[in-house]
């Protein structure tokens, strides 16, 4: 029975992986969009924290050069600042190699031109599903000895909406989850066989630990307590005769990985070809830059400051729901649980706290609880767990900013699109435009007041022509301005019916129903029922082609 349930949950995970929800801009701007192609060097600070993007200039290669594909992308401040804080070491094996394989298969099958970026997008989603299904579930099997407890843990992790959604998206946090789990596996293997030679496990642990550090600087927080188990192995000669060799193997593999990581980052961020002297005199050490950046409160304030209890009282219940009750009533003490506790404790020290930062703790905690033994409480808890994950899975895995990716694909197919204004949505990933960037200027005006948006549209709107008033003939025009906005934006309602000679005209050309803008919720101003009626009842994302009357223009009336 449990095997059939597990297989069903794997299919559910795949279904959510193939759903175009958009959980956070970082799933593109810290991963695929960086490594996919040559970049647009844009001097901007925090691009998806409420500030508007500047009007994008025509694309040109930056110091990063051309990567895998030829379509332009946007490199954010984390990669273009004088002290970059993101390493490219994790990006190449996780995203770069699959992209190279896709390009090789595309060309090998006799296809001409560039592989469509949306095909790359879905391929990476399937890849994240596969590595989550294989590596995460495998790690749980390795970490739990009891078959009965193992079945419970596997089903709990597989039925979590976090596994369905976050783990199947291209987040560095999702990669960190797998690295933490497998470091724990390696630590367990080394500690449980102290009298045997574990040189291979020690070498792999050193390499994987450095990989995790360059992926996210928060990674060591999850190994603070588990790492203590290695002290007897490395320092007690009676337990381990090969202690010096094992320690040397761990340190050597770690230092070798550090050298490779620093070399890759220095080459990536240096305009010219690097030499040995560059690596010695001016190395780019991204984890150090990241740590120094996050130690400054004024830097974190640009992203949002949170109280120390944000992770424990807000983010964790949002991720595990009813499982949090079991952590207090039916815990199963384990190295996994201690790893999660140490991670939460260290992450709570930093004042910027997002729920996705806790992703590595989810499988660790869900595999460290026991279900109630009494039948009725067990059934009640299981029902609550199913309802919780169905609600949040549908919300985050289907509707959350679900129209952004399809909307960008739609815009890429409009031959007349030369200006695209995105209002009250997450920042659209421009690498999905499939080369349309060469003629299309994308502007993200997420939190801009409506009056200013109208002024911007008035400046950019093309003149209304007879073609604009006939079905699809506007596509033959050379220029066109599009506004992409949630249908729950009531501020725009008075302007939409305008058919007169004055003002802007909005022609709806595309709509995606499965889109919710949770940032548009304002219970304080509109009340609960009115807000839900607007945000949920009018869910969807709409693209309007915007024109204006131009006296003297051909076809004006």
From TrEMBL:
GO terms for biological process: GPI anchor biosynthetic process. It is found in: Endoplasmic reticulum membrane. Its main location: endoplasmic reticulum. The keyword Disulfide bond does not apply. Pathway: Glycolipid biosynthesis; glycosylphosphatidylinositol-anchor biosynthesis. GO terms for cellular component: endoplasmic reticulum membrane. The chain crosses the membrane at residues 87-106, 118-135, 199-225, 245-264, 380-399. Pfam families: Glyco_transf_22. It is a multi-pass membrane protein. Its EC number is 2.4.1.-. Residues 1-17 form the signal peptide. Belongs to the glycosyltransferase 22 family. PIGZ subfamily. This is Mannosyltransferase.
């Amino acid at each position: 029975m449990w095997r059939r349930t597990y297989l069903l949950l794997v299919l559910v995970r795949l279904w959510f992986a193939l759903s175009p929800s958009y959980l956070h801009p970082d799933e593109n701007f810290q991963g695929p969009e960086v490594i996919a192609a040559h970049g647009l060097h844009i001097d901007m600070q925090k691009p998806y924290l409420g500030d508007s993007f500047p009007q994008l200039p025509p694309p040109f290669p930056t110091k990063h050069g051309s990567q895998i594909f030829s379509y332009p992308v946007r490199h954010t401040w984390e990669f273009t600042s004088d002290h970059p804080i993101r390493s490219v070491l994790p990006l190449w094996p996780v995203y770069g190699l699959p992209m190279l394989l896709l390009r090789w298969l595309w060309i090998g099958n006799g296809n001409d031109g560039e592989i469509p970026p949306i095909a790359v997008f879905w391929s990476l989603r399937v890849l994240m599903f596969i590595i989550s299904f294989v590596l995460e579930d495998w790690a749980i099997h390795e970490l739990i000895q009891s078959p009965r407890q193992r079945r419970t843990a596997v089903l709990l992790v597989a039925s979590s909406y976090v596994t369905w959604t976050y783990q199947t998206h291209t987040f560095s946090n999702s990669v960190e989850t797998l690295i933490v789990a497998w470091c724990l596996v390696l630590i367990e293997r080394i500690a449980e066989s102290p009298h045997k030679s574990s040189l291979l496990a020690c070498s792999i642990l050193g390499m994987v630990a450095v990989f995790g550090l360059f992926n996210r600087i928060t990674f060591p927080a999850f190994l603070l307590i588990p790492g203590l188990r290695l002290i007897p192995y490395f320092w007690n000669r009676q337990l381990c005769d090969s202690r010096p060799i094992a320690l040397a193997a761990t340190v050597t593999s770690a230092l070798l990985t550090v050298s490779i990581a620093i070399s890759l980052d220095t080459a990536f961020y240096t305009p010219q070809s690097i030499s040995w002297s560059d690596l010695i005199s001016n190395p780019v050490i991204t984890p150090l830059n990241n740590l120094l950046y996050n130690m400054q409160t004024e830097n974190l304030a640009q992203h949002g400051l949170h109280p120390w209890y944000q992770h424990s009282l807000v983010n964790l219940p949002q991720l595990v729901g009813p499982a949090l009750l079991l952590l207090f009533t039916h815990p199963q003490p384990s190295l996994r649980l201690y790893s999660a506790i140490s991670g939460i404790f260290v992450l709570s020290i930093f004042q910027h706290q997002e729920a996705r930062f806790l992703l590595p703790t989810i499988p660790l905690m869900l595999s460290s609880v026991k279900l109630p033994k009494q039948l009725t409480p067990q059934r009640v808890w299981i029902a609550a767990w199913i309802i919780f994950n169905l609600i949040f899975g549908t919300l985050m895995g289907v509707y959350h900013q679900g129209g952004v990716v399809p909307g960008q694909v739609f815009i890429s197919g409009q031959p007349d699109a030369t200006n695209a204004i995105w209002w009250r949505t997450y920042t659209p990933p421009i690498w999905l435009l499939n080369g349309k960037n060469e003629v299309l200027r994308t502007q993200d005006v997420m939190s801009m007041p409506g009056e200013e948006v109208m002024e911007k549209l008035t400046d950019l709107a093309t003149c209304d022509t007879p073609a604009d008033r006939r079905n699809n003939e506007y596509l033959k025009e050379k220029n066109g301005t599009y506004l992409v906005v949630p249908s729950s934006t009531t501020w725009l309602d008075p302007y939409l019916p305008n058919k007169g000679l004055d003002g802007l005209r909005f022609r709806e050309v595309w709509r995606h129903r499965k889109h919710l803008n949770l940032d548009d919720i304002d219970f304080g101003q509109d009340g609960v029922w009115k807000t839900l009626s607007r945000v949920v009842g009018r869910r969807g994302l709409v693209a309007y082609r915007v024109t204006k009357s131009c006296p003297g223009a051909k076809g004006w009336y």
